[in-house]
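FORM 7B: Structural annotation worksheet

SECTION A. Query
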Amino acid sequence: MIKLKIILGFLFCFIFLYNAKSQAPFISQNFNSTQFFNPASVGFGSYNRFNSIYRSQFSGVGRPYKTIGLNLDFGFLKNEGAEMNNLGFGIQGISEQVLDGILQTNSITATIADRIFFDDLRTNFLSIGIGTTFVARTIDNSSLIFGDQFTAGRLLSASSLEVLNNNNLSKNTINVGLLYSHNDNSSYMQIGLSSYFINRSTGYNTTNDSLRVNPINEFSQTLAQFNYEQVLGDNKTLMIHANYQNRYENEFIFAGGAIGLPFNETYESTNRLYIGCFYRSKDALIPYIGLMLNKYKFGMTYDIYKNDMTIANLKPQTFEFTLSTYFGKRRNEGIRSIFD
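SECTION B. Predicted structure
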């Protein structure tokens, strides 16, 4: 039965990974927010979790982008039978705003996941997750005002004569993920694949391919991720994260690491300061500082861009903050990890 679940899980995930459509958030700390990127991760942490994300992007050239995300996930229906399965459930909400909310994309996702353990100590397991997302994209037409009449360089009328059609769109979609996890007293590892917005339209409203429309699903994402944290001497830790994202508009590799420095630790309380740096290919270098205070986790990044904007002497500033809290009874005795 276990082997059959594994085979079906791999087939299910890989079939839908091909050319999938997506609107998963674009952030720099997805290692702190795995639940937003892989449905198979919900409900399988050491505790139940609440995560939040705030990202202000390109603020040095106005306020074009802002991302807010909230996640709640927890485990339930814990079984003690031969297969020792756990189920997990999660809810994620994301709001992406452009130009102070003139264009908004809001989504809410409900996800359920199941995992299969490979040993009696429950240190190795494979999880499969599936979720459904409702997405709504709105444009505030009242804020889109264009000058229509100019005389000698002077604006005579600020009224807009443009005809703006209703561009508010909504859609229901399906998401899938597959995740292998290992967690013992000295190391923590995750390897996963995920895909978002599978049941998409083709992006055309006629049989003529030249007559494209702008559907809500004009973006795509397939993601592969690797998380690893190892305990070193004096209870220090080394964490490494890498992911590959293939979106409709681009693809990139994100990789880096951090050192975890313990302080005021006890048997029941894990406290670490994380200092590290990451790199997003062809885009930015991203310093990171994080803080784990037992059942609380805080992270901050700043994107140092090296792309066409910096060549044009623009100075975009992107700050990102994550805050997580854990609650409920602890479910395992493995290492407390930044990825947990």
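SECTION C. Observations
The domain at 2-327 is CATH 2.40.160.40 (Porin). Helices lie at 2-17, 308-311.

SECTION D. Sign-off
Analyst initials: ____
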